[in-house]
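note to self: dont lose this again. the chain is below, predicted strucutre after it. 375 aa total, dont forget to put it in the shared folder this time
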Amino acid sequence: MKLSEFIRANIEEISAQWEKFAATLLPNEEFSASVLRDGIAAILKEIALDMEHSQSAEEQQEKSEGAQDSLEDKDNAAETHALARVRMGLSSRQLISEFRALRATVLRLWDESNQAVSKSDLYDITRFNEAVDQALTEAAVRYSEKIEQSRELFLGILAHDLRTPLAAISGFAHLLVYAKNPDRNAEFASQILISAGRMGHMIADLMELTRVQLGSGISVNRSESDIVNICSNVITEMRAVYPERVFKLDADKSLRGKWDEPKLEQVLSNLLGNAVQHGARNSVITVKAKKLNDSVEFQVHNEGPAVPKKLLPVLFDRFVQGKSGFRADEGRAANLGLGLYIAKEIIVAHGGTLKVRSTDKEGTTFSANLPLTIP
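---
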């Protein structure tokens, strides 16, 4: 039996060996068999197909020199597997070790089949090693791309989201130094502590976000919270950062539920920051919060030019604003395009939705809907 035929006929046994080895890579974590086996069957089929494909001496030389024509196909099994392993938290060394173990497993099982090795079998082994190397290279390249993407995302979020609470701390500290009314010092100090606390939560979120690569979403830690208090706290912070802007809160007396309060504060801070940047300078930025039948909704509204229609379908994608260069106020630099992306991820993690409506006549309104029942 040719080696490629042996691989096709023994996918289940090879997959079982792969699963057993993969379970040793993160011994303190528990993963299902489907997660541990992720992509192995497809990888084996692609390896067998590559071995059966006729190859000239020139093509073999190009492959040995690292020519990767198939890398243009972003859906091949090895690359998809690499992305899944990134989300699991595997290192590049562990990813490489999987393919080394796969090579050894296939050759060992084939040898144990007790067939005599012929000259054509030696050629098959060469083709098999080339195919494994090809798959490993594709996986390694995609893994590196994803890690680099994660680093860029981390630095971008760090610069974007920490700016507001850091500016608030600076502003309140300034007031503490020059305050003419000492009775308000306690209030200023309290606001500094609140902003510093938010920065701490954001840093923790960034570490989590980087690990999961935004692929499996953001985890939320629910506790009894009040949307009205969240809105009030963030508006107070924004007033300190942008004293020239007018913020108005229109909300019910109390809107309680089980949510992740620090993360929702981050959402509202991002939405208000977006309104400040893209809204008309002399307009009032309004925050509304109300209870619906089985959910709570809060909105952020600003006047000014509408979001360009071509951006609306992708407005919540990351880096969109930075790439587009869109800004309502030409005197301000466009942000990194991360705030709305993060905001939507957090709302989705709560089982809710985040939508936008924007026209030149009515202005721009972001609406976040949070279910009262935990999904």
